[in-house]
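Technical annex, item 7. During the second reporting period the consortium partners agreed on a shared format for inverse folding records so that results from different sites could be compared directly. Each record opens with the tokenized structure and is followed by the designed sequence. A conforming record, contributed by the partner at site C, is shown below for reference.
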């Protein structure tokens, strides 16, 4: 990414408002981030905005791998894998039934500021940053003019089976939402306080330095958190965080423990359709 270039910030459909490039040093950084929050979220505070009369209801779907099953895949990896043909059918369903994909950024902005979301909103998220999302997910999203949010582990980038920095920056340039998922994907409830801060705040800093924009949304590895983890996430400057708790997001949810909905690799299109509605029977079990 060329220095000084203003890149698109993922929002709705093909993309949303332009991003604001932000120097990452000292008090100037804090001042500019506060201004960016005021412009984009309608508040520079770390507290949620007053509840809007508009009801927010949105399924936040969670995926990991989209690829063919391989003989060497263990049970966990198979449980986290959706075949490309199934994923493509699910994207076609969203398009055909007039769902609007919105980024996690746009969703949180609506929760904080009271801005309206488009009709039938859905958030598509991917955890961990595996290389198959660049090969199979990114082209499919662009083909259908949809957006998704990718929770990235910066310490894994460039390793075998993971995305490279170049691929992450390319996806960001084309309107995909890039957010944080710790530096090395530990269970944050069992690490030392110092390591917890390094993992949480460090992932934000690493992504901001390369993306040249604030990173304000987090996802907990393994969905694991406790009060100490919540405090670290908040003190690190994140405005919202996603768990693996099963459920559909509503305005009343705590911004630091937002729920998501798993998509299984044996879902029929009818089951997938059920995951987009508030039907408890449609919730998948957490594969982890």
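Designed sequence (site C submission):
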């Amino acid at each position: 990414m060329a220095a000084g270039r203003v890149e698109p910030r993922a929002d709705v459909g093909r993309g949303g408002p332009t991003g604001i490039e932000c120097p990452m040093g000292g008090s100037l950084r804090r001042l500019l981030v506060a201004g960016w929050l005021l412009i984009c979220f309608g508040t520079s505070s770390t507290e949620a905005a007053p509840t809007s009369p508009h009801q927010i209801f949105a399924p936040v779907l969670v995926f990991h791998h989209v690829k063919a099953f391989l003989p060497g895949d263990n049970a966990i990896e198979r449980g986290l894998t959706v075949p490309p043909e199934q994923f493509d059918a699910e994207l076609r369903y969203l398009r055909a039934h007039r769902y609007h994909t919105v980024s996690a950024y746009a969703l949180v902005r609506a929760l904080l500021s009271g801005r309206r979301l488009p009709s039938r909103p859905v958030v598509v998220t991917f955890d961990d940053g595996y290389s198959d999302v660049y090969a199979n997910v990114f082209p499919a999203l662009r083909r259908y003019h949809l957006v998704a949010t990718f929770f990235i582990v910066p310490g894994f980038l460039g390793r075998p089976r993971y995305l490279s920095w170049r691929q992450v920056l390319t996806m960001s340039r084309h309107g995909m939402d890039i957010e944080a998922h710790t530096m090395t994907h530990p269970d944050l409830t069992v690490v030392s306080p110092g390591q917890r801060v390094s993992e949480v705040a460090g992932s934000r800093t690493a992504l901001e330095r390369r993306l040249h924009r604030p990173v304000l949304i987090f996802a907990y590895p393994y969905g694991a958190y406790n009060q100490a983890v919540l405090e670290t996430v908040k003190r690190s400057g994140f405005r919202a965080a996603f768990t693996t708790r099963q459920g559909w997001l509503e305005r009343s949810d705590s911004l630091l423990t937002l729920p998501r909905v798993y998509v299984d690799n044996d879902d029929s299109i009818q089951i997938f359709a059920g995951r987009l509605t508030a039907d408890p029977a449609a919730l998948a079990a957490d594969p982890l």
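Residues 29 and 135 are 35 Å apart (CA to CA). Residues 1-10, 14-54 have pLDDT under 50 and may be disordered. All partners now use this format for quarterly exchanges.
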